[in-house]
Description:
Blueprint: H1 16-27, H2 31-50, E1 55-57, E2 61-68, E3 71-75, E4 78-85, E5 88-95, H3 97-105
Antiparallel strand pairs: 1-2, 2-5, 3-4
Helix pairs in contact: 1-2
Amino acid sequence: xxNYPARNYKExxxxxxxxxxxxxxxxQLTKAExxxxxxxxxxxxxxxxxxxxxxxxVGFGTFEARERKAREGRNPRNPEQVIKIPKSMAPVFKxxxxxxxxxxxx
Length: 106
């Protein structure tokens, strides 16, 4: 048996409204302007991934779409039933060095 150290943190989530408020405060934009900027960023990343491009923000991280191979799965309600799961694309984010270092300084 492997003993893992207890985690001494609680899960904390920042929702979109809180993110926009923080963006507006730090950039001296109105919340509406911050929302337009965030929506433009998100749609630009989405379009790039749809077109097979990577979006790399040096130090922060890279967004990309990776292919998930077709595979067989099991129906959780009926484990004997095999389900064929087709190949698909999945969005992936890989943190950059600066972001990793910043998170680990906490």
